[in-house]
Amino acid sequence: QVQLMQSGAEVKKPGASVKVSCKTSGYIFTAYAMYWVRQAPGQGLEWMGWINSGTGDTIYSEKFQGRVTITRDASATTSYMEVTSLKSEDTAVYYCGLASSPMRYWGQGTLVTVSS
Amino acid sequence: DIQMTQSPSSLSASVGDRVAITCQASQDITNDLNWYQQKPGKAPKLLIYDASNLDTGVPSRFSGSGSGTDFTFTISSLQPEDIATYYCQQYDNLPFTFGQGTRLDIK
Is the pLDDT at A101 greater than 90, yes or no? Predict the structure, then answer.
């Protein structure tokens, strides 16, 4: 069965970077793109960007362009999402999701807390 | 980017009521629309895809309709376990934007 397992919670200081991983199993990794979504406390879902797991090509939402980098390691069937220059407003749960048809597979979420 | 306008932002209804949530896209997205249910502390759960297709294992009291720019999500008979926040999402064009969400409570 398809599984997406994310790395654990992180606490970072403002200005630092964080890299969240999404380890996958149960399907052919390069067959589907992976997307990332974040949810600030008490807020809605924000689509951040995605990566073509085969080619490594990425597309980012304009809001996150330049400060977010999504990568993948096909040999490890893992996708990564890095946010740099963290601010308190980046405190959120970050989710990975599989761009399968339909889009039913999500990771469990990773809480990133940015606090001095 | 395609804007998704979801309404209402919150809704209170009684058990057994019929509940409807609407989602309007800023441009034609044909039927490339998902509806998700999210409970506190959990990842979103897909209920409806392609605007009207029920995902596997989802109760039949949930349904979706619409195409183009206007979509509706309906719960035919509200159950206590349906308390959650519901989101629409378009996947016609990247970025795959979400509606603002509808928080559903029991009256």
Answer: no
